[in-house]
């Protein structure tokens, strides 16, 4: 690896993707290289509206892809990368060689190709990759120079064109039939369907109850353990797994299991109070547990969510920084394999830290089941030929970086450690009850005698169905006494226990990533972006770590299932990923594949003919779901609502007025039970109820059922055309500078007074007197000694006082109307502190901002939670939860907000010079080493 300048200009230009790598790599390469970053992709497909006029009406105009000429993309340099391209061209003129060291996956290969096409180098060109940013990896990179892999580039370009076609054909259908601003995507729509299907299962679920017994059993020397009833009269006792989601026993279990009710379980418990128990069988088996395989992108996201409470997005952002700064290997990978150097490093560290007995005689080898040609060829692990312990890097990393590095380090080291060993005992014991029934109990437990890899790391797991209240299965590390068959036991505390089946658990980010990975949907490296997208689009909300679909998502998924079923089919989506892999391996032509996808082939129907022949889509039906007999939930422009009636009266032939009710925005779909529907419909019947006329204005006051709760408001009559004309006539005439009269504007509609109902009020019983009081708020209590006004108000979090920017909570809603100035001043005389009667504390505290040097907190604002350091505010992204926010992420968001500066008004964009569509052809440059075959593009 050259480190000193020796050639004509004396230097070579090496381009990486991220600026974070530049300093580290420059330090290793010395002055023989100029190291610069491309800042990611330098060009992409433009929006069709940005195309030159002469291309908008041709085959390029719809997608910025020439669908008539081999699906050739029309690329343009991104507007924010033009300065970067100019800079790279200048540096290239001063260099004797160009080294393209972008990442080793499809995206990285495509970036290298785009750089080659745009820079048009006249010097030797070399392609190399760095799976980790260490001196050893960089040296190995220079030992393995190669050409640009055009098959990988083809695969990435196919994926980009595919996603453009998919989104641009399906999204307009959603705009017309569901709502403007929605989008469809090859992976995001399938991910949304997964979440919606799980919620449908929860909505259809009916709980079943069943009973069993638990008891404590002791030997003659008082060694006690607990056991659970497992059989009655030879029939296995029913458990939750025996019931279907309908609440009935599954056909395979019906008639074969004992389904105990409360009476049967309680009577059996009573009948066993004096029973003589004995051991019926003892079975002991050796226990062996192997370590988890090293991390892939998918498993890292899952484990970080379980153990660190990181969102997928946060995990990838932190991992990116660790990679770029030389702490871990490349974080986008499907491989579980470790290099020989890594295996030796892990075994050496395990031996040093835990002892030679914790390391097996021969190295463990892992291989991936995936044939994926896109990703890097090694698992995610600590960087280097020898690993740095977490303690060694702690002071150099942020809190989040350290936690993720420690997780990766533990998993890697544990993967080369010995199996955990122990024994598992299963015991059956029983007795004949006083009423003649035979009862058999069972207990099991595992005793770990050698912890092996568990000394370093234990993999987390998502709770299985029925385990919502149990973190463990109760088996591991549960020691049972040494028992022999026929041994007598004394039973005590035998009691009946009631159980209920639980609905399928909602997806978490971790379990959704796992499901997508197992189904082969999308790329693990894109899962974080996919989950962020479906949240940002409003399809899915994160509540307490679980993913809940919106009603809009139900409409979107239903439309896609009914009219584009193939394109949200899990197997079809997985097959598309396999097809992209075949293109990446050079086994399939991108042009042929895209043509079959879009236009169709002999055995397949393409997307275009499907879209062109959709026929009529009943938007009302798509946006309707029956939630109770005769009652439908409809997804409207202003949110979901319930509707009943509206049918034709058979006697009069007239259409009955429908009864409508709003659905609360925070109500999850599976919480909309028939009982809740009846409650909301009853409330909806009072929507629009007239309370009377305001004696001061004469305006009618009505009670309304709003999406965010019940409220009262006044009805302001609309002005007639004559009144509007008279009003405009009375206005003075204004003139332009040229002397022409300006047209007079119509009067602005007067905003009605409104007031939210107190929690103690009901829409059906609220009176005119109550309404007038509510609409009069805020109430002026008085002024303090400095003349500052104090008001009493009702807010989102309850009643409060306000003086300037200082707010203090009130204890009851009634205080809004009866608190005196003296009492208000007394409240303000007290120091402001946390607790009842004070302002709400921050939702989270995230440390100190390095720029402003002020505390970063998360507060609940009018439009939702936001991050602030007291100077800069930024709304918490919808794709992230408050629980998952970290100090690092908060600093990033505040920095991004500062960088944007104040919001500027949009101005008309200047038209760019016409560019010709690209045409691919292979080229090669003369060079003393391997060089890339490249494609042309404008």
Notable traits:
globular; 938 residues; single chain; six-stranded antiparallel β-barrel; disordered C terminus; alpha+beta; 21% strand; 26 helices
3D architecture notes:
It is built from 26 helices and 34 strands. With 938 residues, the protein is an alpha+beta fold. The strands form nine sheets. Strands 9-10-15-14-13-16 form a six-stranded antiparallel beta barrel. Strands 2-1-7-8 form a four-stranded parallel sheet, with helices on both faces. Strands 19-20-21-22 form a four-stranded antiparallel sheet. Helix 9 packs antiparallel against helix 14 (509-519). The longest helix is centred in the first third of the chain and has 28 residues, at 150-177. It starts with 11 loop residues before the first strand and ends in a 38-residue tail after the last helix. The model is unreliable at 1-9, 371-376, 468-475 and 905-938 (pLDDT under 50).
Q: Which range best describes the helical content: under 10%, 10-25%, 25-40%, 40-55%, 55-70% or over 70%?
A: 25-40%
Strand order of the largest sheet: 9-10-15-14-13-16
Largest sheet: 6 strands, antiparallel, barrel
Low-confidence stretches: 1-9, 371-376, 468-475, 905-938
Query: In angstroms, what is the radius of gyration?
Result: 34 Å
Q: What class would the helix/strand composition place it in?
A: alpha+beta
């Amino acid at each position: 690896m050259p480190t000193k300048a020796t050639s004509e200009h004396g230097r070579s230009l090496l381009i990486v993707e991220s600026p974070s790598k530049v300093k580290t790599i420059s330090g290793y390469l010395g002055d023989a290289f100029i190291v610069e970053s491309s800042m990611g992709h330098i060009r992409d497909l433009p929006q069709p509206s940005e195309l030159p006029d002469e291309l908008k009406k041709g085959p390029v105009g719809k997608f910025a892809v020439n669908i008539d000429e081999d699906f050739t993309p029309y690329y343009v340099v991104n507007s924010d990368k033009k300065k970067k391209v100019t800079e790279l061209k200048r540096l290239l003129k001063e260099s004797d060689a160009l080294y393209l060291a972008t990442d080793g996956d499809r995206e990285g290969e495509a970036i290298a190709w785009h750089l080659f096409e745009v820079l048009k180098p006249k010097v030797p060109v070399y392609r190399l990759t760095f799976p980790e940013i260490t001196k050893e990896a960089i040296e190995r990179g220079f030992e393995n120079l190669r050409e640009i892999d055009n098959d990988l580039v083809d695969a990435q370009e196919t994926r980009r064109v595919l996603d453009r076609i998919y989104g641009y054909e399906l999204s307009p259908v959603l705009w017309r039939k569901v709502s403007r601003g929605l989008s469809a995507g090859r992976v995001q729509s399938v991910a949304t369907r997964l979440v919606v299907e799980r919620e449908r299962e929860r909505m259809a679920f009916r709980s079943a109850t069943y009973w069993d017994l638990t008891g404590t059993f002791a030997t003659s020397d008082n060694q006690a353990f607990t056991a659970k009833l497992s059989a009655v009269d030879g029939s296995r006792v029913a458990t939750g797994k025996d019931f279907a989601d309908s609440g009935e026993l599954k056909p395979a279990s019906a008639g074969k299991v004992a389904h105990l009710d409360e009476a049967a379980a309680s009577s059996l418990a009573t009948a066993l109070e004096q029973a003589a128990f004995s051991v019926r069988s003892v079975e002991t088996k050796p226990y062996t547990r192997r370590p988890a395989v090293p991390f892939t992108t998918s498993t890292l996201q899952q484990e970080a969510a379980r153990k660190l409470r990181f969102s997928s997005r946060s995990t990838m952002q932190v991992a990116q920084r660790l990679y770029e700064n030389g702490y871990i290997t490349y974080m986008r990978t499907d491989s579980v394999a470790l290099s020989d150097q890594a295996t030796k490093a892990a075994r050496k560290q395990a031996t040093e830290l835990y002892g030679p007995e914790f390391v097996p005689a021969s190295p463990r080898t892992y291989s991936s089941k995936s044939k994926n040609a896109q990703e890097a060829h090694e698992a995610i692990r600590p960087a280097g030929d020898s690993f740095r312990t977490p303690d060694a890097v702690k002071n150099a990393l942020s809190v989040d970086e350290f936690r993720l590095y420690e997780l990766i380090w533990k998993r890697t080291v544990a993967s080369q450690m010995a199996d955990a060993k122990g024994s598992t005992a299963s015991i059956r014991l029983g007795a004949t009850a006083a009423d003649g029934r035979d009862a058999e109990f069972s207990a099991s437990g595992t005793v770990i005698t050698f912890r092996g890899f568990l000394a370093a790391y234990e993999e987390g797991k998502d709770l299985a169905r029925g385990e919502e209240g149990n973190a463990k299965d109760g088996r591991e590390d549960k020691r049972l006494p040494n028992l022999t068959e026929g041994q007598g036991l004394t039973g005590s505390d035998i009691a009946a226990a009631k159980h209920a089946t639980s609905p399928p658990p909602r997806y978490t980010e971790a379990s959704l990533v796992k499901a997508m990975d197992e189904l082969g949907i999308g790329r693990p490296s894109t899962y974080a972006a996919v989950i962020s997208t479906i949240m940002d689009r409003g399809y899915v909300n994160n509540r307490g770590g679980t993913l809940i679909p919106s009603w809009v998502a139900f409409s979107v998924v239903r439309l896609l299932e009914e009219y584009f079923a193939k394109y949200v089919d899990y197997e079809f989506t997985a097959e598309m990923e396999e097809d992209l892999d075949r293109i990446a391996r050079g086994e399939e032509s991108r042009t042929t594949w895209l043509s079959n996808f879009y236009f169709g082939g002999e055995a397949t129907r393409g997307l275009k003919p499907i879209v062109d022949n959709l026929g009529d889509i009943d938007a009302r039906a798509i946006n309707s779901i029956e939630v109770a007999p005769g009652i439908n939930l409809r997804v409207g422009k202003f949110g979901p609502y319930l509707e009943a009636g509206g049918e034709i009266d058979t006697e009069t032939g007239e259409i009955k007025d429908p009864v409508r009710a709003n659905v609360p925005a925070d109500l999850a779909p599976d919480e909309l039970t028939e009982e809740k529907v009846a409650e909301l419909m009853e409330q909806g019947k009072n929507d629009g109820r007239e309370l009377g006329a305001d004696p001061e204005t004469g305006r009618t006051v009505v009670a309304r059922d709003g999406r965010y709760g019940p409220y009262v408001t006044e009805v302001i009559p609309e002005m007639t055309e004559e009144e509007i004309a008279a009003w405009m006539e009375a206005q003075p005439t204004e003139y332009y500078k040229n002397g022409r009269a300006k047209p007079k504007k119509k009067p602005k509609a007067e905003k009605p007074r409104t007031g939210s109902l107190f929690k103690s009020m009901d829409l059906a019983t609220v009176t005119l007197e109550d309404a007038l009081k509510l609409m009069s708020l805020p109430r002026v209590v008085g002024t303090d000694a400095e003349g500052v006004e104090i008001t009493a108000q009702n807010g989102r979090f309850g009643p409060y006082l306000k003086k300037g920017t200082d707010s203090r909570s009130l204890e009851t809603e009634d205080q809004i109307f009866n608190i005196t100035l003296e009492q208000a001043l007394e409240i303000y005389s007290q120091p402001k502190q946390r607790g009842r009667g004070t302002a709400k504390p921050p939702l989270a505290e995230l440390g100190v901002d390095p720029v402003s040097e002020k505390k970063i907190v998360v507060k609940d604002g009018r439009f939702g939670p936001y991050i602030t350091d007291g100077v800069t505010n930024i709304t918490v992204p919808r794709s992230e939860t408050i629980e998952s926010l970290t100090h690092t992420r908060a600093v990033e968001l505040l920095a991004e907000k500062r960088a944007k500066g104040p919001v500027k008004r949009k101005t008309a964009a200047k038209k760019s010079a016409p560019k010709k569509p690209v045409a691919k052809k292979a080229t090669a440059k003369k060079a003393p080493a391997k060089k890339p075959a490249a494609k042309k593009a404008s």
